[in-house]
């Protein structure tokens, strides 16, 4: 005789349900802490642990798990001592950029895709930065351009100095643009470039390329400071185009000497890009100043 099973079908066991409830409580408490941190602002006091336990109405273990989550997001930090407690902090783009770059790297993003993604973002940033003619906000970029124009020849060709200046330049024009969204996107892509560029770096051992790119970048900076949006956009596009040219040139060189390309995926992507851009060789003269 078949005996019918008793119990609630489809209901999770008590231990599983309890775990789910605990996780849900932690997430709810964490979201409440995020909102409170944003409301009080950078360095603002959220309260002591006892005050926050009362405010949130959760257990101490739940609160501490929630606080750990939000602290990992760089939104809060704890200060011990008589005047201690939980304080808000303004997060930077580093954490978000790192996670996004890990995701893109896992998905197999390569240098060609990154250059193509950076190009339109830099154009938008350049346009917005050009529209900002506030002398005080322009000053950091003005100082950067003056420093770049007065570098000694050995500094101009220094690979490490160049990489640092390129990242700094991106940060300066992003700040001048006033767009937090574009700034974050650019930082994400720069972080990823730093991770994947090791085997396909178009600047390593090419001092002439560094100098040529710096000249274009300086013209871009000058155009932004002068409020010349058309020239700023043109120089921005030329910077991206010349880097793509160098990548295609390096691939052809690899093929001529019979060397293996950095990755087969990159090889295929560059070949596709080359087919999409007929007449690249003759176009070089049109993109250089």
Give a quick precis of the structure:
The protein has 289 residues and is mainly alpha-helical.
Report on this model:
- This protein has 289 residues and is mainly alpha-helical.
- It folds into two domains: 14-88, Arc Repressor Mutant, subunit A (Orthogonal Bundle), CATH 1.10.10.10; 94-287, Four Helix Bundle (Hemerythrin (Met), subunit A), CATH 1.20.120.530.
- The protein is elongated and about 65 Å long.
- A hairpin with a 5-residue loop joins strand 2 and strand 3.
- Strands 1-3-2 form a three-stranded antiparallel sheet.
- The longest helix is centred in the last third of the chain and has 29 residues, at 229-257.
- Helix 8 (159-177) runs antiparallel to helix 9 (180-196) and helix 11 (229-257) runs antiparallel to helix 13 (280-287).
- The chain has helices at residues 14-40, 49-56, 60-72, 94-106, 111-131, 135-149, 153-156, 159-177, 180-196, 207-226, 229-257, 264-276, 280-287, and strands at residues 45-47, 76-79, 85-88.
- The chain is built from 13 helices and three strands, in the order H-E-H-H-E-E-H-H-H-H-H-H-H-H-H-H.
* The level-1 CATH class of the largest domain: Mainly Alpha
The domain count comes to 2
Q: Beta fraction of the residues?
A: under 5%
Number of strands: 3
Indicate the low-confidence ranges by residue numbers: 1-18, 278-289
What letter string, H or E per element, gives the SSE order?
HEHHEEHHHHHHHHHH
Broad structural category? mainly alpha
Radius of gyration: 26 Å
Tally of DSSP helical segments: 13
Overall mean pLDDT = 80
Shape: elongated
Question: What portion of residues is helical?
Answer: over 70%
CATH topology of the largest domain: Four Helix Bundle (Hemerythrin (Met), subunit A)
Largest sheet: 3 strands, antiparallel
- The side-by-side strand order for the widest beta sheet comes to 1-3-2
Oligomer: single chain
**CATH-scheme architecture of the largest domain:** Up-down Bundle
CATH homologous superfamily descriptor of the largest domain: GntR ligand-binding domain-like
């Amino acid at each position: 005789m078949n005996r019918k099973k008793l119990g609630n079908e489809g209901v999770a066991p008590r231990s599983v349900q309890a775990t789910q409830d605990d996780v849900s409580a932690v997430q709810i408490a964490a979201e409440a802490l995020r909102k409170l941190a944003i409301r009080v602002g950078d360095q603002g006091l959220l309260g002591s642990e006892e005050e926050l336990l009362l405010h949130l109405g959760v257990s101490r273990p739940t609160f501490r798990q929630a606080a750990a989550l939000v602290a990992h997001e760089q939104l809060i930090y704890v200060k011990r001592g008589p005047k201690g407690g939980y304080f808000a902090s303004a997060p930077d783009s580093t954490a978000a950029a790192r996670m996004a770059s890990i995701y893109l790297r896992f998905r197999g993003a390569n240098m060609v895709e990154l250059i193509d993604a950076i190009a339109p973002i830099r154009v938008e940033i350049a346009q917005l930065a050009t529209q900002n003619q506030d002398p005080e906000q322009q000053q950091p970029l003005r100082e950067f351009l003056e420093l770049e124009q007065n570098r000694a020849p050995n500094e101009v060709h220094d690979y490490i100095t160049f990489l640092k200046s390129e990242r700094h330049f991106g940060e300066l024009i992003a700040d001048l643009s006033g767009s937090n969204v574009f700034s974050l996107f650019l930082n994400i892509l720069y972080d990823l470039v730093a991770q994947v560029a090791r085997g396909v770096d178009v600047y390593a051992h090419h001092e002439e390329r560094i100098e040529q790119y710096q000249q274009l970048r300086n013209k871009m900076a000058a155009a932004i400071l002068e409020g010349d949006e058309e020239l700023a956009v043109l120089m921005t596009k030329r910077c991206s185009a010349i880097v793509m040219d160098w990548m295609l040139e390096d691939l052809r060189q690899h093929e001529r000497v019979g060397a293996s390309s950095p990755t087969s995926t990159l090889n295929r992507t560059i070949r596709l890009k080359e087919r999409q851009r007929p007449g690249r060789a003759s176009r070089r003269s049109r993109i250089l100043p």
